[in-house]
Amino acid sequence: MMPAKVRKPPLVAALLALVATPLATRLLVHGSMPDTWGVFPPPKSPDVPGFSWFVFVLGVALALLIAGFIRAPQRFGFAPPEPAPREQPRLVAFPPWCVPGALLAMASWALMWGELPELAALVPFSFVPLWWGFILALDGVVYRRTGGTSLVARRPGAVLAIGATSCVSWYFFEYLNYFTRSNWYYPNDAIFSRCGYLLWFGLAFTTVLPSIFVVYQLLTTIEPLRARFARGPKIELSRAAVRRLLWIGLASLAALVLWPAPLFPLIWLSPLLVLSAATALAGAWTPFSALRSGNWAPVVLIGLACALNYLVGEMWNFYSTSQNPNFWKYDVPYVNVLQVYEMPLLGYFGYLPFGMLCWVWWIHHAQLLGVDPAIDVVAGAGPTLTRHQDA
């Protein structure tokens, strides 16, 4: 049964508000744009606050709470998992794109780390094939584990649409980054022309959402992991409460512009509130819809998928050569210590809401454009590639 028709005005209004709120706040309060405005790639900011024990200890406490929840959700009101079904999808052969994707990823990986000096001229162009090779290879693993269901197999056009949405979404985050003292920046900024950077980064940004989604799909094929978070507390909000969350999201986005250092985590949380609330008000399914039945697996697993995906990505980034234009560094206020690769240890917990935001961003844009937003390969709480259900 197809879900009810989604109303587009709330989707359009939310997108416009996300773009206008930081811009209007900055101009109304300061009368001018940040000094780095329009410089791309964004440079390192000179005035990021240093380490703070107070903020660090708060961050560690929150991180331990999150880690405790993931490790033992039953301590947080979750019921024990139900017995796994006896019938499992039969394994099929890897699809034709899996091995070529893996070979492309490995060759590009060697290029990025400077292991093929005779092909050094290709190093600046290794990022995009590395990630798309990774996506194709992992999609092939998902295909095998599900008995022949994956995004590339069932909806290759959707893969392209997700890639295009990914490009738009990350340029939006780069836009927000101008207002937050450049929490991340790209020091290898003299390889291409400014126009070249815009074009190349546009291609690179197409990989963000597809890579997170394919790791999420792989995690959902692990039945014990999915079942661990499927019987939690039920949460259902009234439309009035959802509207309040939308306004809280916009207000917090404005606050982020006014106090970018102490409120820097809101760069991921504020858009998540706005887009999730607007998408729900429009009548569309989101991962948070599953909380009504107590199924927390979609929101937890997409967060874990994002963290795992970028643990690999941070490794690739850290060891890449100085000729990689996509190399990034962080300058995070108060907690820029204990780096695992370039990312501060506490920063990996920020990937959890970012994964949720990426999924909601895709659903929002897909509904706005009239595209089927389903990405799930395993029947669960909401739309899958073979089934639609509004849980």
From TrEMBL:
Transmembrane segments: 50-70, 91-113, 119-138, 158-178, 198-219, 240-261, 267-288, 295-312, 345-363
Transmembrane helix keyword on record: yes
Organism domain of life: Bacteria
Sorted UniProt keywords: Membrane, Transmembrane, Transmembrane helix
Protein name: Small-conductance mechanosensitive channel
Organism: Nannocystis pusilla
